[in-house]
Amino acid sequence: MKAAICILLFVLVGYIQARITYDDVLDAEFELFKVEHKKSYDNEYEEQLRLQIFKDNKNLIDRHNKRYAAGEKTYKMGVNKFTDLTSKEFKRLMLTSLNTNHSQEGFDYIYNPSAKDSLPRSIDWRTSGAVNPIKDQGRCGSCWAFSAIGSLESHYFIQKGKSVSLSEQNLVDCSRGYPYNNNGCSGGLPISALNYVKDNGGIDTESSYPYEGRNDYCHFKRNNIGAEVSAVVKVESGNEEALASAVANKGPISVGVDASLFHLYEGGVFNEPLCTQQLNHGVVVIGYGTDPDEGDYWLVRNSWGENWGEKGYIRMARNRNNQCGIALYPVYPLV
After folding, report:
1. Which residues form a coiled coil (predicted)?
2. pLDDT of residue 229 exceeding 80
């Protein structure tokens, strides 16, 4: 009797397992995704739409990661807070124009690397305490402000020996329009942001002027200045060797990249032939190195929170014909 019951249970379990489809698994994963990323939707239609987009993206992730496991791709994809967005939605919400028509203007000096420089094989400015924790720009196209602030915070630490968190919202609110040509949550340029700080005589601290993720009126207060900029330095455009020298000898550098394909990045060295040099996102190069399997890379600080990529960072292919335009418009401040 007991043997018969065991056989019956075994058959039932097998039947249930056979009835669980890949679609059922994705349904369950979507429920976990909503909890982990605190997602809620306005109505049932929106919920079903986001579920289908999630499933489509999960299929893309699985196909890509099979190629990664086979050594055909250098980076892996994964579920993140953007997995319920289409590629077009991701670009519209998270990426923006960097106004590169003005990118050749507004610098005081050009960085000239010494021919005698012997650069370290790798560098990571986090190890010296020069890089603040990852921030999150939210759904505001203020990456240019986070890029400028990320570089400024690091250079202030390197030169002054003090860690300070500075206000991106100060830039979003106060550097819009003439003469800096920034557009708040609709885009801007790190070089213009740094010029604002220089001309303004400083920028407020994060604690005194907290981030809102939206355009607001300018309420900069001179009593709350956390750092100043004496000059803006540009690194030679398109020269990865010059960029490496600047990173090693001066500190983290503000750059622009084409981040159109960062949507589902989870880890590894991002070496993607489909990446263009049409810049749409500001980030900070905080170091470089060489992966034993995937070769040279840039260590890049992003502004999408710690739950994206490699705890908020991405390693991007280095010495691969200026991939994603990373060396087109590098700048940094003198403090």
Report:
1. none
2. yes
Residues 63 and 108 in one domain: no
pLDDT given for residue 252 in this prediction = 98
Task: Let me know if residue 83 belongs to a domain.
Answer: no
Query: How far apart, in whole angstroms, are the C-alpha atoms of residue 192 and residue 182?
Result: 7
Section 203-220 average pLDDT: 98
- 69-122 pLDDT, tens per residue? 999 999 999 999 999 999 999 999 999 877 665 556 789 999 989 877 789 999
Number of independent structural domains in the chain: 2
Q: Average pLDDT of 135-152?
A: 97
Q: Which of 45, 73, 101 is the last residue of a domain?
A: 73
Measured distance CA(53)–CA(126) in Å, rounded: 36
Residues 225 and 121 in one domain: yes
- Residues 7-21 have pLDDT tens digits of 444 544 454 455 578
- Considering the chain, what is the average pLDDT of its residues? 93
Report which residue type is found at 205.
Answer: T
Strand partners, 291: 295
Active site residue ranges = 143, 281, 302
